[in-house]
Design goal:
565 residues, alpha/beta, Hemocyanin, N-terminal domain, Rossmann fold, 3 domains, 23 helices, Malic_N_dom
């Protein structure tokens, strides 16, 4: 296959300092002459393979994960092709370094690690000039993806004020095939309630308590309207918004633009895929499940809504009947009618249980998780609480006593906050449990000595594909049916459907090919339901998607004053 040719208008130091076009020592002799690089590079021309080997050797000299994160961040600022190629070749090893869990540490120390700005920073004190700032960064660019965050709820570490969501954009390109030049990470700096940041003299964000109410809404709305005005076919990804805003903002904009919240919809979609794989093993239906969700924040509620909507769509039951399949528990206990109104957000009310169901517990005080398990006899137990060890031996065995293959998903991140170690859940159920976790865990031993691979219920197995499918189809929205189509495609790839004692989800090392299948399914659904902005036939989608995939390869450059910059 011939090397693609690209006409480029920059040269000399400028091209060496541009990570999109820089090849470093891989510039050919002809390119060095054409682009004024003679004498600016060592003599020898290296292949991409040689550059990768050198970079990997350098990476291994870093003693800590945060040191490796910083090294890779520096590489990204220098050479995109080398950066993404290195990550692709060491996917399982390096994704935890540039994404969860190490990225959380990098964001927590963002102000002290800061070296170079990345993306777009929109800050409330400058809100009157927001459009000018927006256009300054986006002018001349064809942007398909905006990843925006107000950093109020960074997983596991909370409010970080000005933490940028660039890692999410990287995963979209690394695993989803999205051209990094067509994505933009956006920080919406609306202050912080993190006292340590407010007192930190090196904090780089706006040192002010976090905005609420109308000022906050107007600020976010101004940004969203700029995206809609200037990039109407783009995908707007909401990341790490707090529980008071995440669902509310998603509902506000989802019918007017292609918006997506990974904490809600991505978590819900990958959990739906895991559950569909599990019920493929148990030979049951989604609407047959009795589901306890322990942790009713954005992730837990997002999972409940995604599973409920799938029941309505796939099993043709009413929303009310689907709601009755769920029992949600948060730090105030079981979500039920008699809880004080301030404990039950509006978006939780649909899942509130009637007090009459729990009369026998009224005199005994708080209803525990064990109480709910014994009464409900759940088929599925999902944890999104960050309450380490909440799924005790007694809880797990009480569930297994009433269920032949209990479905247990302790999804909290990082691993130290998981509701139950999957090895323990496997042992306590004599290998009967069908397991998926939010963090990677080693295999557990089955009673027959076989390794049971613990599925990693990682959003990155699905959200890049959901986003890529929406982008290439130029869908006007990201509909529930598009998400369900992607989740069903992921579930169809489950190893457990061939061997019931195998993992519920594909190996994370296969994430790029898995996400491509998800993207095809999402785009096909958009075309079928008429929300797509492209004039494609459904049978054309797969080939069109292949044409749109970005891959980290060095193109042949020709100097042209009218070329790309």
């Amino acid at each position: 296959m011939s090397t693609p040719t690209l006409r480029v208008a920059i040269r000399g130091e400028t091209i060496l300092n541009n990570p999109r076009f820089n090849k470093g020592t891989a510039f050919t002799k002809a390119e060095r002459k054409a682009f004024g690089l003679i004498g600016k590079l060592p003599y020898r021309v290296n292949s991409l393979d040689e550059q990768c080997q050198r970079a990997y050797d350098q990476l291994q000299t870093q003693d800590t994960d945060i040191g490796k994160n910083s090294f890779l961040q520096s590489m990204k600022e220098q050479n995109w092709v080398l950066y993404y190629t290195l990550l692709t070749r060491h996917l399982r090893e390096l994704v935890p370094i540039i994404y969860t869990p190490t990225e959380a540490e990098a964001i927590a120390n963002y102000s002290h690690l800061f070296r170079k700005s990345e993306g777009l920073y929109l800050t409330f004190p400058d809100h009157e000039s927001m459009e000018e700032e927006f256009l300054e960064v986006t002018k001349g660019r064809d942007i398909d993806l905006f990843v925006s965050s107000d950093a109020e709820a960074i997983l596991g570490i909370g409010d970080q004020g000005v933490g940028i969501s660039a890692a999410k954009s990287v995963i979209y390109s690394l695993i989803g095939g999205i051209d990094p030049s067509k994505s933009l990470a956006v920080t919406l700096d609306v202050g912080t309630n993190n006292e340590s940041l407010l007192k930190d003299p090196l904090y780089v964000g706006w040192s002010h308590e976090r905005l609420r109410g109308k000022e906050y809404d107007d600020f976010v709305d101004k940004f969203v309207q700029l995206v809609r005005k200037h990039f109407p076919h783009s995908l707007l990804h909401f990341e790490d918004f707090g529980v008071t805003n995440a669902q509310r903002l998603l509902e506000r904009y989802r019918d007017n633009h292609a918006v997506f919240n990974d904490d809600i919809q991505g978590t819900g979609a990958v959990t739906l895929s895991s559950l569909m794989a599990a019920i493929g093993v148990t030979k049951s239906k989604l609407c047959d499940q009795r589901i306890i969700i322990y942790g009713a924040g954005s992730a837990g509620l997002g999972i409940a809504k995604q599973l409920r909507d799938a029941m309505v769509t796939m099993d043709n039951i009413s929303v009310q009947e689907a709601n009755s399949k769920f029992w949600l528990i948060d730090k105030h206990g079981l979500i039920k009618e008699s809880l004080p109104a301030e404990y039950v957000r509006d978006d939780l009310k649909a899942f509130s249980r009637q007090d009459a169901e729990w009369e026998e517990f009224q005199s005994d005080g708080e209803i525990t998780l064990l109480d709910v398990v014994k009464k409900v006899k759940p088929t599925t137990l999902i944890g999104t609480s960050t309450h380490a060890g909440a799924f005790t031996k007694e809880v797990v065995q009480a569930m297994a006593a009433e269920c032949d293959r209990p479905i247990i998903f302790p999804l909290s991140n990082p691993s130290k906050l998981v509701e139950v170690n999957p090895k323990d859940a496997n042992d306590w159920t004599n290998g009967k449990a069908l397991l998926a976790t939010g963090s990677p865990f080693p295999p557990a031993k089955m009673p027959n000595g076989k390794d049971y691979i613990i599925a990693e219920c990682n959003n990155a197995l699905i959200y890049p594909g959901l986003g890529f499918g929406a982008m290439i189809s130029q869908s006007r929205c990201v509909s529930d049916t598009m998400i369900i189509a992607g989740a069903r495609r992921l579930a169809s790839l489950s190893p457990a459907l061939k061997d019931p004692d195998d993992a519920l989800l594909p190996d994370f090392g296969d994430a790029p090919s898995v996400n491509f299948e998800v993207a095809v399914a999402v785009a096909e659904q958009a075309v079928e339901e008429g929300s797509a902005g492209v004039d494609w036939k459904k049978e054309e989608v797969r080939e069109k998607a292949k044409e749109k995939l970005w891959k980290p390869v060095y193109e042949e450059y020709l100097y042209d004053e009218n070329g790309e910059k």
